[in-house]
Amino acid sequence: MLKLSNFIGGEFASLEENLYIDNYDPSIGKVYAQIPDSSEHEINLAVEAAQKAFHTWSKTPCSTRAQIMYRIADILESKLDEFAMAESKDQGKTLEFAKNVDIPRSIYNFRYFAGHILHMEEKATVMDNGYLNYVQRSPLGVAGLISPWNLPLYLLTWKIAPCIAAGCTCVAKPSEFTSVTAYMLCDIFKQAGLPEGVVNMVFGKGPKAGQALVSHPKVPLISFTGGTVTGKKLNETCAPLFKKVSLELGGKNANIIFEDCDFEKAVDTSIRAAFSNQGEICLCGSRIFVQKSIYKKFLESFVPKVRQLVVGDPRDPKTKVGALISKQHMEKVLGYIELAKQEGGVIECGGERKQLDGEFSDGYFVEPTVITNIKPSCRVAQEEIFGPVVTVHPFETEEEAIDLANNNQYGLSCSVWSENGKRARRVAESIQVGYVWVNCWMVRDLRVPFGGVKQSGIGREGGEYSMNFFTEQKSICLAN
């Protein structure tokens, strides 16, 4: 059985209390690895190592930092198949998705931010009276990076890459459900020549290791991606300590389809937006609003195609929907489907646990589920389910679509489908979210800001926005 170790000060380290957490392969429902159940002791050691490394790493030239990051990306790329297989086994996602999305994006995260720091420009201004003003950008210190289980390496590297590019060091705590690729990444850090202590990886549970990291007095900034409830607790801890915080939290994203859309593209992309990664993406379009004139036509096309999605062995190339992360999460998703029935919803397809044969008989599979005839105000249409479940609602006017989309506690993303450019832009600018796609979904430019509004979080990451988060800017004025 695979047994992970923390990575502290450039070395794999043993636990003080020798406690471990069982880690399950979601596709078979069985333990296959053990994760360190780290405590405050391990967090303290990791912070100490990160502090020590910060003194040198923060002064290391950008060109040297970039060179090491490019090496990390190159080594990771050479092991793409190995990492994709490990990610699929650990998270339950399809191997196809891990190969085409998770690991390539993880590689690109390092390459993008390595290139970014090589081309950053600092501006200076000269006042009429001759005074010179410029801004000094300095890395902030040791960052606490907490990443979720849905896109494990993808979102962990989205934090680590800008952090070390900016000259900060870090203590990272991946989700205890999906720690294997983070563990594997540590060996790549050693191979690439990343100095000891720049990245420290501590595995464990949120209330224990995570809380110790968030509350540590020598960790001045925290980047967290995860659930809104946990994000609230984290922010309550950080606020009195005046820590710099970036929170990317939940989403219940609207997908608005107008009658003048490119119909086939809208249908096919809506399926991908709803069920990619088993619906376990914070950006999934789980509230579909369709203009009334094409509502029936949409369902007649959408539902049969959803029924054709293959649920099963994540390693099988034919599989489009893998296993959910845990038995508890599967039961939560199924509970929402039962709630939909109680709220008067019609299950157009799916709605059940998917029972497979052989080694996958105990896996955490749920059929892709489409629900109609339910009020947009019902819990199933308002709360984040984070599974292969979508609700579909009709609307009549543009104003009604905007109101329906905005009537939610979350504000992460939205998709708008219309061939009328003026309408598409008008709607996009009226939606209360951090990111809007028009006639597409999940197209990301790492230069633009990413983040949510309302209960989807605070702060922005990406490009210069990430650099601003991991650095402090000081204005300096020089006399003649």
From TrEMBL:
Active-site residue list? E248
- Which residue numbers delimit the Aldehyde dehydrogenase domain? 20-476
The keyword Lipid biosynthesis appears for this protein: no
Q: What are the protein's GO molecular function terms?
A: aldehyde dehydrogenase [NAD(P)+] activity
InterPro entries for this protein: Ald_DH/histidinol_DH (IPR016161), Ald_DH_C (IPR016163), Ald_DH_CS_CYS (IPR016160), Ald_DH_CS_GLU (IPR029510), Ald_DH_N (IPR016162), Aldehyde_DH_dom (IPR015590)
Keyword set, alphabetical order: NAD, Oxidoreductase
Claim: NAD is one of the keywords in the record: yes
Check the record and name the PANTHER family matching this protein: 2-AMINOMUCONIC SEMIALDEHYDE DEHYDROGENASE
Q: Which family does it belong to?
A: Belongs to the aldehyde dehydrogenase family.
Q: From the Swiss-Prot or TrEMBL record, give the protein name.
A: Aldehyde dehydrogenase (NAD(P)(+)) ALD5
